[in-house]
């Protein structure tokens, strides 16, 4: 389970930030106006792959739950497992099914990025809409992206 409130990065390596437990996190500066590149990448990838079901800014829809709310309790491991393996919540009042994305490189190559974006939204440090500014994409990010996407 994740802690409450904004997370301060404990470590940065090649433009990626992690918390004290080694989980991916965001880096927001300039009063919430500027985000790190992985968080910006997460915003872009979320809007390419997740918005259709989970709604704008991770706020949820009538079709799928709010990821902003889910990340108040779900850690990176839980989030990753659900995205990769899918999830089914079936009861007499609902039939919610999320497909598995383990074979989708457009999701899996950017999974930590999507998580950092949603974590920042969940912690309340990243507002709705496109972040105004972002750090540049690092060379190591470009290399990892090329290797993952093939």
UniProtKB/TrEMBL annotation:
A Pfam cross-reference name: Cytochrome_CBB3
Taxonomic superkingdom: Bacteria
Molecular function in Gene Ontology: electron transfer activity; heme binding; metal ion binding
Chain positions covered by the region annotation Disordered: 1-27, 125-150
InterPro entries recorded: C-typ_cyt_methanol_metab-rel, Cyt_c-like_dom, Cyt_c-like_dom_sf
Keywords: Heme, Iron, Metal-binding
Residues annotated as domain Cytochrome c: 37-115
Coiled-coil ranges from the UniProt annotation: none
Basic and acidic residues composition-biased segments: 11-22, 130-150
Protein name per its UniProtKB record: C-type cytochrome, methanol metabolism-related
Native source species: Methylobacterium brachythecii
Lineage: Bacteria, Pseudomonadati, Pseudomonadota, Alphaproteobacteria, Hyphomicrobiales
